[in-house]
Design brief:
Order of helices and strands: EEEEEEEEEEE
Low-confidence stretches: none
Shape: globular
Length: 123
């Protein structure tokens, strides 16, 4: 099972940018589709973005489309989430995970989550 460590979060003003990283251990990272999910206080964890195992296709939640960009570097066992035009509603803990797509819905493959990285956007 791949182990994941998220980083890059922080406090930023509305309109600002952050780049999140997801470092994976193990040799199987390059075989997984990867997703970013986020959980705001008191709310369910939700899908943000996903990228196929080879980086050939990307998918986004409507709420972040045009502002966030997911990418990966399989040689570095790392996935990224570039976030621009941040808004207070983007405030959440962000997690990465191997993901699967069923009926156009992305969900985590299962297993334990990493510690996540906190993103806080002030207005």
């Amino acid at each position: 099972q791949v182990q994941l460590v998220e980083s890059g979060g922080g406090l930023v003003q509305a309109g600002g940018s952050l780049r999140l990283s997801c470092a994976a251990s193990g040799r199987t990272f390059s075989t997984y589709n990867m997703g970013w999910f986020r959980q705001a206080p008191g709310k369910e964890r939700k899908f943000v973005a996903a990228i196929t195992w080879n980086g050939g296709s990307t998918y986004y939640a409507d709420s972040v489309k045009g502002r966030f960009t997911i990418s990966r570097d399989n040689a570095k066992n790392t996935a990224y989430l570039q976030m621009k035009g941040l808004a207070p509603e983007d405030t959440a803990v962000y997690y990465c995970a191997p993901a699967r797509r069923e009926s156009s819905v992305w969900s985590p493959l299962g297993g334990s989550w990493g510690q996540g990285t906190q993103v806080t956007v002030s207005s």
